[in-house]
Design goal:
Order of helices and strands: EEHHEEHHHHHHHEEHHEEHEEH
Radius of gyration: 27 Å
Structural class: alpha+beta
Largest sheet: 4 strands, mixed
Shape: elongated
Helix content: 55-70%
Distance between the termini: 43 Å
Bound molecules: zinc ion
Strand order of the largest sheet: 1-2-3-4
């Protein structure tokens, strides 16, 4: 669900966000505001609760915009911001290239939240503070408190939380190795996730089932995100600055147009070799046959259908030249949902590239580096 757009950054809501939005609104209406203003009728009570929840999530968007606009300023393009079950996330096309930029992008979000907490705190105080019980004061103080909590939670030094990114930037700057810095920061993120899971289980056994479950969920999400972010960072650093010519295992001699699909399936295509096979005639590549093309043909026709009949012609494929950056190509492919691209230099076919092949190359590079 699309909310809007700020400087080319789209703001979306994931379905799971509805759950947390409803929980926050409910806890305000059934707890905080009901206790503070017992004289309020249901209409006022729930309107104020709803408004406060909306303002809270507007603050989360501003936090993410802090990260996003700082990243944009340093030449990193931001696809958008998504609100989901565990808060907000800004999707960027790549990670910062220097520890200095990483530090700025990481701290910009919490800085926005600190300013919001101070601003709402001042507003609450101007309207009489806790003792005055003015509605504006009570809403403002709530927002000051939750923005403060957003800062505290996000500044835990576990990757990929903001504090973990700041820790990684510092370690990266100190050690000069982004891989080592990421490994340490991700381990810290997994540790924090495990700590939350353990606390959640203890809470549940102590009778607080709701908060316990929530802690376990958040902890599990964090530990998982730390692992994914770690793998992605290493892939990016293995692929960035590498031309495709180093990744494509050339030359692929391909098969002739007369080859039957049955032979292709027996000899070239399968779970272990899912990349498409070039169809070569008179020394020129005419097209590619991959698993999707084979699947379109009934199995009984496999012996009578030729590769030429089944192939996707080269002209119909997306192409990329071999001097392009491997990481940028991977980002382009996942953005456009492309399964493969033909690598072509000046009209001459070089090979096929798929996200799987790029990631496999990254994994081999990583193994070689450790
Ligand atoms: Zn943040």
């Amino acid at each position: 669900m699309r909310l809007g757009r700020v400087r080319g950054i789209t703001i979306d809501i994931h379905m799971s966000w509805i759950v947390i939005f409803a929980l926050v609104t409910y806890s305000l209406g059934a707890g905080y505001f009901r206790v503070t203003f017992p004289e309020w009728g249901g209409g006022v009570l729930w309107s104020v609760s709803l408004l406060s929840a909306v303002l809270f999530f507007a603050c989360v968007v501003l936090h993410e915009l802090g990260h996003s606009l700082t990243a944009q300023k340093h030449g990193i393009s931001v696809h958008g911001i998504t609100l989901f079950l565990f808060g907000g996330v800004a999707r960027m096309d790549r990670e910062p290239e220097t520890p200095q930029v990483e530090m700025r992008v990481a701290l910009a979000g919490p800085l926005v939240s600190v300013l919001l907490a101070l601003g709402f705190g001042a507003l609450g105080w101007a309207f009489g503070g806790l003792g005055g019980k003015h509605p504006v004061a009570m809403v403002s103080l709530y927002l000051a408190l939750v923005n403060g909590m957003v800062v505290i939670f996000n500044m835990v030094p576990g990757f990929p939380l903001d504090g973990g990114r700041a820790l990684r930037a510092a370690l990266w700057w100190y050690t000069g190795s982004v891989a080592r810095a990421t490994r340490l920061a991700a381990a810290s993120g997994k540790g924090f996730g495990a700590f939350l899971i353990a606390s959640g289980i203890l809470l549940a056994f102590a009778g607080n089932l709701f908060n316990g479950t929530w802690f376990v969920l958040v902890g599990w999400f964090l530990a998982d995100a730390a692992g994914t972010a770690y793998a992605q960072t290493l892939s990016q650093h293995a692929l960035s600055g590498t031309p495709l010519s180093e990744v494509v295992p050339w030359p692929d001699e391909g098969v002739t147009g007369e080859t039957s699909i049955q032979t292709l399936v027996d000899t070239r295509l399968g779970y272990n070799s899912p990349d498409p096979v070039p169809v070569v005639e008179n020394g020129r590549v005419q097209g590619l046959v991959g698993i999707p093309e084979v699947k379109r043909i009934a199995q009984t026709e496999w012996t009578s259908t030729t590769a030429r009949e089944a192939m996707v012609p080269v002209a119909a494929l997306g192409t990329v030249s071999s001097d392009r950056d491997a990481w940028e190509t991977l980002v382009r492919m996942s953005d456009q949902n492309l399964e493969w691209l033909a690598v072509v230099d000046d009209g001459e076919f070089r090979g096929v590239i798929s996200p799987r092949r790029l990631l496999e190359y990254a994994r081999r590079r990583r193994l070689a580096a450790t």
